[in-house]
Amino acid sequence: MSATSTDRILNFSAGPAVMPEPVLDQIREDVWNIDGSGIGVLEHSHRGPVIDRIFDDALERTRRLAGVGDDHEVLFLQGGASMQFGMIPMNFLPEGGIADYPDTGTWTSKAIKEARKFGEVNVAFAGSDCNYDHCPSNEELSLTDGAAYLHYCSNNTIYGTRYATPPSTTAPLVCDTSSEMFARPWPFADHAMVYAGAQKNLGPSGVALVIIRRDFMESAGRETIDMLDYRKHAKAGSRLNTPPVFGVYAMNLVMAWIEEQGGLPAMADHNDAKAGVIYDAIDGSGGFYRGHAKSCCRSTMNVTFRLPSEDLEKAFVEQAGAEGMSGLKGHRSVGGIRASIYNAFPAAGCDTLASFMADFASKNG
Hints:
Layout: E1 10-11, H1 21-30, H2 49-66, E2 72-77, H3 80-92, E3 98-103, H4 106-115, E4 120-126, E5 150-153, E6 155-156, E7 161-162, E8 173-176, E9 193-197, E10 208-213, H5 214-218, H6 230-235, H7 245-261, H8 263-283, E11 290-291, E12 302-306, H9 310-322, E13 325-326, E14 337-340, H10 347-364
Parallel strand pairs: 1-13, 3-4, 5-8, 8-9
Antiparallel strand pairs: 2-10, 6-7, 9-10, 11-12, 12-14
Helix pairs in contact: 1-7, 2-7, 3-4, 7-8, 8-10
């Protein structure tokens, strides 16, 4: 797969989000006829040789990118990351146990709400007290001795914050990395479980990637229905029922593209440079633009900032849209502007936005 030219507009959407153009080209071909089979990928049996090859490739690529071996299972599950909010405590929060959840934004708040349906939750960091402007240092965490696990979100899409390193804990570590999966090196093997909804940085919506350590998976103590049992999915090779074949197929292509770019270290360098262009535009605006996240915790995937007034923010979004930049309106719970610049977002698009920001500030400052 190689880069292609395009006249499409710049897609700053937080998800479903931009995908690599070479992947879209390959999808266009394979929807009609994949692997010379005479049948499109949407039509193949999920237990046939073509889909066997796709699942095997996706599993091995996940292992290579994450740096995990046979002591971890790789699962492709339905329900997205939100299903994991309930599935994790259902399996791993035992009666009488406590799980630690640092609250760093909307998605951790939702995860806490779901976990409380199955057991006790210790909110190890109350991010609402600081309007979610940073992720906690280890000194800010209030942890539970003997916690069943610690669940955190590595990158907070809505607020534009991220952890520099994972929280330090003796409990099994569980990470929601939906909005930055495979965007930078991360100690995946040190985690009991890492999961991500695909639609932000891995492919289309409808599938969740789960990397789970086998001993943690086998520790599940609560009996549940088969479709919510990680062990049953692992035993069935992620095909306990008809799986989200297209999502896994597209994810496999995206992961192949990431490997072609140089893997996670190259992705991190690329993303740091892209985000730096926009953060420089914020910091160099003389206060016209105000970043939401503290500088220590700035996301390279979701750049969030405010303007002097909501009227100016509305005008900014409208005028940017007229110049071919879509999806810049901030989340309704935060307001302002949000530029989501995932792995596949082109560096030139960040230059375009930064130039527009400077021009807009000069005319409205």
